[in-house]
Design goal:
Layout lengths: L14 H30 L2 H12 L4 E5 L2 H15 L4 E3 L2 H4 L12 E6 L8 H9 L4 E5 L5 H5 L2 E4 L15 H21 L3 H7 L3 H6 L3 H4 L8 E2 L5 H11 L3 E5 L5 E6 H6 L10 H4 L1 E2 L3 E2 L5 H10 L4 E6 L2 E7 H6 L4
Parallel strand pairs: 1-2, 1-3, 3-4, 4-5, 6-7, 10-11
Antiparallel strand pairs: 7-8, 8-9, 11-12
Length: 336
């Protein structure tokens, strides 16, 4: 059996160090070229960018994003970002479009075509279809005088930048700039539309992001689960309610459900005496107890409970007790 290859060792002549320096130099050069291109892109934005937003904001259907090759991969990402930020979008492959997928494009849509050269042959049928049926056509291209730019209703022309590939051939800088421009459009549309965290949560219910956007109302206990009693109740009955609901506390509410105070396990210890069970809850409760609203993010509620050294908190709306949240509810939901 052959032995595994040995790890490279630094040689006394520094050749290993020289290789490392060359690698880092190459990486930094690529990032420097692409960073410069992004700065140039930011400086180039103007009235056409705003026109693109006008067109997209007016769309009643979807934004059809398309591109071939590396531009197609970028188009996939842009379509996904638009969709997740409140602008419905889909990707249509330009070659497949010529074989039936043009049927995916309809009145009320807009076509968003990406091509660095602006002369991508596979886009021809899709562009012709958009023009024939008066579907708005937006172009992102590096060719200001290209066929795509001339056919488009509005064009975003990328500033001339060198590809990071030393041969100047592999799409690197150009695709980075396209993707960043797509992000800029998606975020600008999000802000123009006033896309809210609540709407964002609807589109992102899963994963860590979805958990971060959970609200207290999504996980709080309500109705019969609430440990609530009236202000004239004896401590003996309060203890029965506390034990039955298992939150280690009970809320005291008036006839309209307004939270007047809270009794916790800690209050019981502080008032422990032979007369405790015969006292009224009004004598024991903590008035003006800390509470939160149902619209608070669950992650904020965790911070609130930690800051106040409590493990559960009543949820009030308009002064009325509508729920209770235990820190274990947040942990079970993956909020920390």
């Amino acid at each position: 059996m052959s032995s595994p290859p040995a790890m490279p060792k630094s040689s006394s002549d520094g050749r290993q160090d020289a290789g490392t320096e060359a690698d880092l130099s190459s990486a930094k050069r690529v990032l420097g070229i692409e960073a410069a291109a992004l700065n140039a892109l930011a400086k180039s934005l103007g009235e056409p960018f705003c026109r693109v937003l006008d067109v997209m904001a007016a769309v009643t259907g979807r934004i059809v994003v398309t591109g071939m090759g590396k531009s197609g991969h970028v188009a996939h990402k842009i379509a996904s970002t638009l969709s997740s930020t409140g602008t419905p979008a889909l990707f249509v492959h330009p070659a497949e479009a010529s074989h039936g997928d043009l049927g995916m494009i309809a009145k009320g849509d807009a076509v968003f075509a990406l091509s660095n050269s602006g002369e991508t042959t596979e886009l021809a049928d899709l562009v012709a279809y958009a023009k024939r049926f008066e579907i708005p056509l937006i172009a992102v291209t590096g060719g200001a005088d290209s066929a795509l730019a001339e056919a488009a209703d509005v064009s975003l022309v990328l500033p001339q930048s060198e590809e990071a590939c030393p041969m100047g051939l592999a799409p690197t800088t150009s695709t980075t700039v396209m993707m960043a421009l797509g992000d800029a459009i998606a975020v600008a549309l999000l802000e123009r539309k006033g896309f809210s965290p609540d709407e964002f949560h609807v589109l992102h219910p899963g994963g860590k992001l979805g958990r971060r956007l959970l609200k207290v109302s999504d996980i709080m206990h309500t109705d019969e689960e609430l440990p609530l009693i009236g202000p004239g109740i004896s401590m003996a009955d309060a203890l029965i309610e506390m034990t039955a609901k298992s939150f280690g506390c009970v809320g005291i509410v008036d006839a309209k459900g307004k939270l007047e105070g809270v009794i916790t396990d800690g209050d019981l210890r502080r008032h422990m005496s032979p007369e405790l069970l015969t006292q009224s809850v009004g004598d024991i409760m903590t008035k003006g107890a800390k509470a939160i609203g149902p619209e608070m993010l669950a992650s904020e509620a965790v911070g609130f409970m930690n800051a106040n050294s409590i493990t559960n908190v009543f949820v009030v709306e308009g002064g009325r007790a509508v729920g209770i949240l235990h820190i274990h509810d947040c942990l079970r939901a993956g909020v920390a």
